[in-house]
Design a protein that fits this description.
Strand order of the largest sheet: 2-1-3-5-4
Order of helices and strands: EHEHEEHEH
Oligomer: single chain
Number of helices: 4
CATH architecture: 3-Layer(aba) Sandwich
Number of domains: 1
Structural class: alpha/beta
CATH topology: Rossmann fold
């Protein structure tokens, strides 16, 4: 039996925990009505269960955390609310690279850094560890009023997204 490994010596790092290949991140603010669709979807997936090679993350509103969570994944799915002017509850599936947006350099602060900025910065920062595929599901919001619940159209849109998210990984495993 070997003794304890010293990790306080320079150049010695503890082993990194294994990274599961697939990641689902629900983004949004639980306290702002339909903006809660991403984190609410994550809670539904936790309750229903997902395969062990899928990690679920409530990304909240912390954009930079999204970038670091993507490191080394094969595929990432992000779910969030949108305001495009479409009918509330409308679901959009968009390749992540179409939504990558560099943050404005003037006045950039932690609160202004969103997940779409995290995609662009993550591609630059993670390089070869950036996922080969990022898919974003957006659900058109009706109301982001503080303290409100999800509206019925957005709840229905979320219910349509749930099986679509799981299908993303079933299709990947079948390849």
């Amino acid at each position: 039996m070997s003794g304890p490994a010293r990790i306080d010596q320079p150049g010695t790092e503890p082993p990194a925990p294994p990274v599961v290949p697939y990641l689902v991140i629900g983004c949004g603010n639980l306290l702002r009505g339909d903006d809660a669709v991403g984190p609410t979807l994550i809670r539904h997936l936790w309750d229903r269960g997902v395969p062990e090679d899928v990690e679920l993350v409530d990304g909240g509103t912390a954009g930079m955390d999204v970038a670091f969570k993507m490191r080394g994944r094969r595929k990432v799915v992000i779910v969030d609310a949108a305001r495009t002017g479409a009918e509330p509850g409308t679901v959009f599936r968009v390749p992540g690279e179409e939504l990558e947006e560099l943050p404005p350099l003037d006045g950039l602060n932690q609160h202004a850094f969103r997940w779409d900025h995290a995609l662009a910065v993550g591609r630059w920062l993670l390089k070869d560890d950036y996922p080969p595929e990022v898919v974003v599901f957006l659900v058109e919001a009706a109301s982001t009023e503080p303290g409100a619940e999800l509206t019925d159209p957005v709840r229905a849109g979320m219910e349509r997204v749930l099986p679509l998210v799981l299908a993303e990984f079933r299709a990947e495993v079948a390849r």
